Amino acid sequence: MEIKREKYLKALTNRMHNGMIKVITGIRRCGKSYLIFKIFKNYLKEIHISDDHIIEIALDERKNKNYRNPDVLLDYVENKIKDNELYYLLLDEVQLLDEFEEVLNSLLHISNLDIYVTGSNSRFLSKDIITEFRGRGDEIHIFPLTFKEYMQGYSGDTYRGFADYIMYGGLPLILSMKTEEQKVEYLTRLFEETYIKDIRERNRIDKIQELNDLINVLASAVGSLTNPSKIEATFKSKLHSDISINTIRQYIAFLQDAFVIHEAQRFDVKGRKYIGSPLKYYFEDVGLRNARLGFRQHEETHLMENILYNELRARGFSVDVGVVPIRKTVSSGERERSQLEIDFIATLGSRKYYIQSAFSLPDAEKIKQEKTPLLNVGDSFKKIIIVHDTLNIRRDDDGITTMNIYDFLLNEHSLDM
């Protein structure tokens, strides 16, 4: 089973020889090592780079333990370079290298060395790690498998595949597991023994129960508007905890730094400005989200929304929640201000799409509910409703396109169909 991950290979090849450190980031177990040691290395061989010009070191392997010493590694790399031809350094689990920031900056001075590194603990995954390379780090963020990638390694049909994907997510190793018990245990242990452990150690967190409670609150609130104040109120009323709002903000930031969750801010479509709190949080992988809740809260509407959010970001879009201010007439005849919500505004350069996520459109009332915010936007950018139903793509008289989630996820150009 081979998942090609062509998008990320292209991202690497487009950055070859740019004089910067290519930093591959992403949540643990999303396929960073496979990308550089298998996919990218195969590409280098295809373009006739000889083995002796590819320097690869997996620092987590016992046999390479001595290379965690910065001076030993520097000497090793320098001694490998025998001529003026280009060399490629593939360095995995770089956080295990002592003083790795200084080492990488030193290696940048070797003019015929092209550098690619990955890391998989929360210190390396922190969003601000690029600054350690003094502006010479070029980040490539890898997501768990998209549904299209997932289906490359899935043996069943599309519909069964999506049912598994929405339950167990897209971490690549999931595809090699045959039973539900294996998948549940893997995701549950991974979250507890890897992600939480890394976050605790990096940030020196003592209040582990409060961190766990916060993760569970965020997991339950996927697709819902919230903010630290609302979460603080939940802690006080339901968990009888006196956790402070500042601690909540800190813990949320730690989870974001480790790429476990992401925030989607609210954007006023007509005022063309960000509104701020409240906002929405989504999980990097829905399988991990489900594992946190013991696979008990399987709300397909919210999980589908999370999957759409991740898909848009994996395609390179910045994604916001749309707010459309309107005035409506109330029973007294007066005009009152109100707000309508658009699930996602996806923006990439000059391209923009307004997208509604609707698990189904059973009747005219539901169709009206989903269309009304889109009809009140007032600009000409494309407006789309994505549903779980297996209907064909259609465009109505109002210019709104409706498509099913399978067409959307399996065709990278679906937004323009």
Layout of strands and helices, then pairs:
Blueprint: H1 6-14, E1 21-25, H2 32-46, E2 54-58, H3 70-80, E3 87-92, H4 100-107, E4 113-118, H5 122-125, E5 137-141, H6 147-152, H7 158-168, H8 180-203, H9 208-220, H10 228-238, H11 245-257, E6 261-264, E7 266-268, E8 273-274, E9 280-283, H12 286-292, H13 300-314, E10 318-329, E11 335-348, E12 351-358, H14 364-375, E13 382-387, E14 394-395, E15 400-404, H15 405-410
Parallel strand pairs: 1-4, 1-5, 2-3, 3-4, 7-10, 12-13, 13-15
Antiparallel strand pairs: 6-9, 7-8, 10-11, 11-12, 14-15
Helix pairs in contact: 1-2, 3-4, 7-12, 8-12, 10-11
Low-confidence stretches: none
What percent of residues adopt helix (DSSP H or I)?
25-40%
- In total, how many beta strands? 15
Work out the oligomeric state of the chains in this entry. Answer: single chain
The average pLDDT value, as a whole number, equals: 92
Largest sheet: 8 strands, mixed
User: Helix segment count?
Assistant: 15
Structural description of this entry:
With 417 residues, the chain is of the alpha/beta class. The protein folds into two domains: 6-141, Rossmann fold, CATH 3.40.50; 145-417, no CATH class. Helices cover 40% and strands 21% of the residues. It contains 15 helices and 15 strands. The chain has helices spanning 6-14, 32-46, 70-80, 100-107, 122-125, 147-152, 158-168, 180-203, 208-220, 228-238, 245-257, 286-292, 300-314, 364-375, 405-410, and strands at residues 21-25, 54-58, 87-92, 113-118, 137-141, 261-264, 266-268, 273-274, 280-283, 318-329, 335-348, 351-358, 382-387, 394-395, 400-404. The strands form three sheets. An eight-stranded mixed β-sheet has the order 8-7-10-11-12-13-15-14. Strand 11 (335-348) and strand 12 form a beta hairpin. Helix 1 packs across helix 2 (32-46). The protein is globular and about 85 Å long. The two termini are 30 Å apart.
